[in-house]
């Protein structure tokens, strides 16, 4: 099992290119199932999650070709014919979003059998809203031995679906199914995360009819077939926010390029309040911080977009561990997303967690220690803390981090961080 070793104390100076968004790329990849024409995704991140999903798509007969293009990394998906509509547990358990192949398989072929999903263990994470949406569109669904079997022999039909609360995955899943349904689907209380807009715009480029982009009501008029398209994956706002926080933690000046500052204003507003200098640029932002000046503690509450992203909560908590004063961090999206708190405490952080709230009392400094990554974003919070911890911090279970951060050691290392990967034996996780 690989681990990451960090020697804290170096300032960060330089430039970090932001990759394409994992949480968009994996939904765009699922869209390739909907057409027999080639779908070319550019600005593609190369991550464990995109690799897993690529394997799953190949299992259905989708040709997946990774290559370097004019715009950097790209992947061509082509499914002239689907040879299977079965998604086995071993591939789906690795990442939650692989469950989103169910709707497209059903929409294209009228049947699919997909394992219930895995993903980060940050809460119970049921898929009831996904299944309710597909049922409303006419799918017959059975749950058996950990698998969802769905059929819609006459095709899916448009429906009016009002989600009881906002779900990113269920909105995307319903959207992916509705584009080929017979008639009009209206999704109310739809999620508005930028990755949904990215998916909708790509589907439109493939010939789908979708109105209400970036609002909480999406109206989709089904079409009988979709064509191929070339689509550039939106920048990863979570990766961008994470490196902004890393730079703020370590101090120095880092320019984030190939990103979009407008997607993370809920984070950067709080960083500015804490005393970090943020300068938006045409393709990202510059983060400046004088490490001899202590930051001020600031509160944060996770919310649906455009609120403060739950996927940045752990990394923000890391920044607050050494800020002056007390920061109250409220997690409203997932019921079990503070597993990084005891790990940060190993480095000397003073954090009390009670139900959905963490109180972080800033300490003067952290000390390196062995810590364990518990989930994807938690892993990054430990790396961020390690950047200032005195001595050596070793982060174990790095496979979590590899799901969502591309070439992390290289990107931070290029700015002067002392971050190395120690190769371990491959393990089954
Ligand atoms: C691959 C991907 O894009 N993952 C993101 C996606 O996850 P994901 O799509 O899983 O998140 P959701 O927005 O669906 O989850 C929000 C809440 O709804 C609950 N829920 C969801 C579906 C359902 O059928 N029933 C139900 O109860 C979940 O348990 C959670 O408490 O959005 C989250 C919220 O921004 C992010 O943290 C994840 O990084
Ligand atoms: C929670 C995440 O991923 P997943 O939904 O795939 O578990 C994430 O990207 O932070």
TrEMBL record:
Phosphoenolpyruvate binds at residues 22-23. Signal peptide: none annotated. It catalyses: phosphoenolpyruvate + UDP-N-acetyl-alpha-D-glucosamine = UDP-N-acetyl-3-O-(1-carboxyvinyl)-alpha-D-glucosamine + phosphate. Coiled coil: none annotated. The keyword Cytoplasm applies. The modification 2-(S-cysteinyl)pyruvic acid O-phosphothioketal is found at residue 120. Its EC number is 2.5.1.7. Pathway: Cell wall biogenesis; peptidoglycan biosynthesis. Its main location: cytoplasm. UDP-N-acetyl-alpha-D-glucosamine binds at residues 96, 125-129, 311, 333. The active site is at 120 (proton donor). PANTHER family: UDP-N-ACETYLGLUCOSAMINE 1-CARBOXYVINYLTRANSFERASE. Cell wall formation. Adds enolpyruvyl to UDP-N-acetylglucosamine. This is UDP-N-acetylglucosamine 1-carboxyvinyltransferase. The gene is murA.
């Amino acid at each position: 099992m690989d681990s990451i070793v960090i020697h804290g104390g170096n300032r960060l100076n330089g430039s970090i290119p932001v990759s394409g968004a994992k949480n968009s790329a994996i939904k765009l990849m699922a869209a390739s199932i909907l057409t027999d024409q080639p779908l070319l995704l550019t600005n593609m991140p190369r991550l464990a999650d995109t690799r897993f999903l690529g394997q799953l798509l190949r299992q259905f007969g989708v040709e997946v070709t990774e290559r370097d293009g004019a715009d950097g990394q790209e992947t061509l998906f082509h499914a002239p014919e689907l040879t299977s509509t079965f998604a086995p547990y071993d591939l789906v358990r690795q990442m939650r979003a692989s469950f989103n192949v169910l709707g497209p398989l059903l929409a294209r072929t009228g049947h699919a059998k997909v394992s219930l999903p895995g993903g980060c263990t940050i809460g119970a994470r049921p898929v009831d809203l996904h299944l309710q949406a597909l049922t409303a569109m006419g799918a017959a669904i059975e749950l058996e031995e950990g698998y969802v079997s769905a059929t819609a022999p006459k095709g899916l039909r448009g429906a009016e679906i009002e989600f009881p609360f906002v779900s990113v995955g269920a909105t995307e899943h319903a959207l992916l199914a509705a584009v080929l349904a017979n008639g009009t689907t209206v999704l109310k209380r739809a999620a508005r995360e930028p990755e949904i807009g990215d998916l909708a715009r790509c589907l439109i480029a493939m010939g789908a009819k979708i109105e209400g982009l970036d609002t909480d009501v999406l109206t989709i008029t089904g079409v009988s077939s979709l064509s191929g398209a070339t689509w550039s994956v939106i920048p990863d706002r979570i990766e961008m926010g994470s490196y902004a926080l890393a730079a703020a933690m370590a101090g120095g000046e880092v320019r984030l390029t190939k990103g979009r500052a407008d997607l993370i204003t809920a984070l950067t507003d709080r960083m500015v309040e804490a005393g970090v200098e943020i300068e938006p640029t045409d393709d990202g932002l510059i983060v400046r911080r004088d490490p001899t000046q202590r930051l001020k503690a600031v509160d944060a509450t996770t919310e649906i977009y455009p609120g403060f992203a739950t996927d940045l909560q752990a990394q923000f908590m890391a920044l607050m561990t050494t800020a002056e004063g007390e920061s109250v961090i409220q997690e409203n999206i997932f019921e079990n997303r503070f597993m990084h708190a005891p790990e940060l405490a190993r480095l000397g952080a003073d954090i009390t967690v009670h139900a959905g709230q963490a109180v972080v009392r800033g300490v003067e400094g952290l000390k390196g220690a062995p810590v364990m990554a518990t989930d994807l974003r938690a892993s990054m919070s430990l790396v961020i803390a390690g950047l200032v911890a005195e001595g050596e911090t070793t982060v174990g279970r790095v496979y979590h981090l590899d799901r969502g951060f591309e070439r992390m050691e290289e990107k931070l290392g290029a700015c002067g961080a002392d971050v190395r990967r120690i190769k371990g034996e491959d393990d089954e996780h």
